[in-house]
Amino acid sequence: MNCNYMEIASFGLKGLTFIATAIGVVLGLVQWMKNGALKRAELIDGIFEKFRTDDNVRKAVYLFDYNQDWYTEEFHGKSRRNKGAEDSVDIGLTYFSYVCYLYQTNILRDEDFELFKYTIDRAVVNRGVQDYFYNLYHFSTRQGIPFPFPALLKYAEQNGLLTNGFFSIKFSPSSFIYSRI
Question: At what angle are helices 85-104 and 150-158 packed, to 10 degrees?
Fold first, then answer.
């Protein structure tokens, strides 16, 4: 009889240990998920912060959003009528490409990306960006070098935001196309 009680007690102790371990695993998983949500929130806040406070990104957003005539022959030239525009545009587009990369690699979810979609879409459909992308795409292809904003170009292509004929070398996306680069 004593052996039966010992076996029952041993079995009960093993069962309690299993239950305690399962509870610990579930609590650990919940904590891990909360930490993941906090990290995601920090990432999104960081992206918003850059949109709001980085002077170059803000300048680029302004140029794109208000259809400023920024992509002219002077854009790459020494006189730089649009002084600082090239830097702001390149930094802004690089940042937008980074956000698209985070989305394409599932670091940002659909609902996360929705927060930035308007600004990125407005940039990509901007006439100057279309011309700039056209020139950069064909220049980089001829030179055998990577396009500088790959994730943004992929996003634009997948979402039908590029002008028809964009990938054709014979196509000019607007009445003005600066192709000295």
Answer: 70
Structure tokens at 42: 């920090």
- pLDDT tens column, 131-141: 899 989 988 99
Q: Are 167 and 137 within 8 A, CB to CB?
A: yes
Q: Identity (one letter) of the amino acid at 169? A: I
User: Considering only CA atoms, which of 138, 137, 133, 139 is closest in space to residue 161?
Assistant: 133
Averaged pLDDT score across all residues of the chain: 83
How does 160-175 read in b/e, with b if 16+ C-beta sit within 10 Å? ebbbeebeeeeeebee
- In the predicted model, is pLDDT for residue 176 greater than 80? no
Max Cα-Cα span within the chain = 100
Region 44-62: what's the mean pLDDT? 91
Closest residue by Cα to residue 149 from 102, 85, 96, 86: 96
Tell the residue number behind the tokens 């990509």, with chain if given: 124
78 or 72, greater pLDDT: 72
Q: Can you say how many angstroms the Cα of residue 66 is from the centroid of all Cα atoms in its chain?
A: 22
Distances from the Cα of 162 to the Cαs of 48, 129, 173, in angstroms? Answer: 25, 10, 9
